[in-house]
Amino acid sequence: MSQVQVVEGSEAVAYAVRASRPHVISAYPISPQTHIVERLAQMVADGELDTQYVRVESEFSAASVLSGASAAGSRAYTASSSQGLLLMTEVLYASAGMRLPFVITGVNRTISAPISIQVDHQDTISLRDSGVIQLYVESSQEAYDTHLAAFKIAEDPAILLPVMVCMDGWILTHSYERVSFLKQEEVDRFLPPFQPADFLDVKEPKSWGSYGEEEMLMEFKFTVYDAMQKGKQRIKDVFSDLSLVTGRDYGGLIEAYHTGDAEVVLIGMGSMAGTIKEAVDELRSEGKKVGFVKIRCYRPFPYEDIWEEIKNAQVVGVMEADVSMGSEGAVSMDLKAKVCGRANAPLVLDFIAGLGGREINMDLVREIVGEAEKVCKSGVPFQEPYWAGLNPSILP
Amino acid sequence: MNTKEITNQEELFVSGHRACHGCGMAIAVRHILKATGKNVIVVTPTGCLETFTSPFGYSPWRVPWIHHLFENGPAIATGVVAALKAQGRDDTRVLAIGGDGSTFDIGFGALSGMLERGDDVLYICADNGAYMNTGGQRSGASPLYSATTTDPAGRSSVGKFQMKKDIPTIVAAHGVPYVATASVAYLKDLEKKIKKAMTYHGPRYIQIDSTCPSVWGFPSDRTLEVGRLAVECGITPLFEMENGEITKVRKIKKKISIEDYLKTQKRFRHLFAGDQGREALKEIQDLADANIRKYGLLKQAKAETTTSSEEVFT
């Protein structure tokens, strides 16, 4: 039994965090994540949430407070965006290396310059190599559910890594949606208290964050890599356990949409998924064999799962709101690295779309599918990424 | 406590670490933990102390210890304090021990945040006046006219041209209950100050003049002596501030000239040649004399800066 309310996306996240009973929350303002930490602050002020709420002086300290709290054996949470996430970068690498689990909502927003508060995925994608698990959500409901799962994934003894739930700024955080909430006892059964085997304890003093010399550093790094790789199955298990409680199943590391007979498969993450699914429905009604794969878990990268959905397609079109300057989009690079060399692999095309809040609408998806169909016919993929929606009239 | 009792105290910072010969900081840390006892968690930002105590598998720490990054020692400490509070572990206290690079420079924002929030952390700066871990580059704590590897003396330079940042005063301006300065040359005094700091709650700060034979350039058997000369000339005043008022100063036993202190170290050697050096020495002497007046460091003298009664101790 659950309660249904129409709430802002940020509030849905705040409800999930409250239900997860974190010992420590750190907060520093940056748009568009502020509504989340503001709502949590009000919950503390109203006596609805018993937590140590730490108002820090920077995002660097926001992430550091989580690291200290986690090392001392407490469940910890914060939210940030954009420049704030970049400022945390060094902390996140070190925390993953030290196997300190905590949860961050990465409310997606572009990176300066130019300064802008609008959405794209450049901020969280920039953290892809850090050892932080990254989960992307399409809706406020999925954001609520995924936050509950995130703590359980982070604290899994086989994983012990920070988890970031990536959620599109404004489109999700500031829009109102019908969201179904679990009862506290249901959450408590799903997510028991954090009880790590090791923590900073005067009864059993241990040293944390040691210097790793050359005969062991690679092994330290390998254990993080290995935890990520093995974590794929654990993440699927946690999602599956949660779906038994919520009755909602989004798939595992990915969600496949009409991929079975698709000649063109689009790939995307975050709130663009809703628009892409709509477009796929429309194109299918016109007789076009188009499918879609939504990546829910970007790190670890679920290439085996994606492969199963694209192996019979002719062309894969990656739509992504990020770009690696001097190369191409990160998701496309990941995918190409894994499909390259496989027999009968589809051609992979990279579409940069939606940077800095540029609208991703049905027409844009149709344009992208049109380009993919051209490559289906010609069999010759384009080498440079296709900048979808670029306005040449204002280029210098 | 007599010498035998001190010797018999449980060692919480044991031998086998990789500090340089005669490292003042290592001596200080051993005595800090003697004063706190074992119910503490220690946070150490990146720096000499972290490097020489943390090679994996060779920890000298017999208390729980964490190093994370260079600029976030205070914020890590805040996180630990918050977790202890949430878990009701009231009998465990938190220390942060950073160097001057992390305290004065790269981690200063985090320190100020921790002080402003009022977090229950005793923050100790083991100040050796430069970035020793990377070979002795200039920091905000490097003394006026000291030569460092990034601010060397030369034909057109007499070393660092700026004053040492007055962090104890800046910390005190945050309204914290306890601020003190100490020296590795006076270990009983250091232990007393640590113990007193532990009687307070909220953010507390102790800055320890941590003599460094390797980079200051003096023989490694003179660690305590050089520290004592720094106090006796007035350049390193030892005081305690409780709730914003100076409550104790360490009186100078026998005042020496600044030259008697500076000439012991290679980092000031350039000041003893040429007119520029002579001018610089005068300026440093003026600084020491100003300290002596400001804090009332000579016997019978009263401090300019305080109205409260002072206790004389030597």
Write structural notes for this entry.
The complex is a heterodimer of chains A (396) and B (314). Chain A has 396 residues and is an alpha/beta fold. Chain A folds into 2 domains: 3-246, 3-Layer(aba) Sandwich (Rossmann fold), CATH 3.40.50.970; 255-394, Rossmann fold (3-Layer(aba) Sandwich). Helices cover 40% and strands 19% of the residues of chain A. Chain A has 13 helices and 16 strands. Chain A has a 7-stranded mixed beta sheet, with helices on both faces. A 6-stranded mixed beta sheet of chain A has the order 10-12-11-14-15-16, sandwiched between helices. A two-stranded antiparallel ribbon of chain A has the order 1-8. In chain A, strand 6 (133-136), helix 7 and strand 7 (163-168) form a beta-alpha-beta unit. In chain A, helix 10 packs across helix 13 (362-378). The mean pLDDT of chain A is 97. Chain B is an alpha/beta fold and 314 residues long. Chain B has a single domain, classed as Thiamin diphosphate (ThDP)-binding fold, Pyr/PP domains (Rossmann fold), CATH 3.40.50. In chain B, 38% of the residues lie in helices and 16% in strands. Chain B contains 12 helices and 11 strands. Chain B has a 9-stranded mixed beta sheet with strand order 2-1-3-4-8-7-9-10-11, sandwiched between helices. In chain B, helix 4 packs parallel to helix 6. Chain B is globular. The chains are: A alpha/beta (396), B alpha/beta (314). The interface between A and B is large, with 43 and 45 residues.
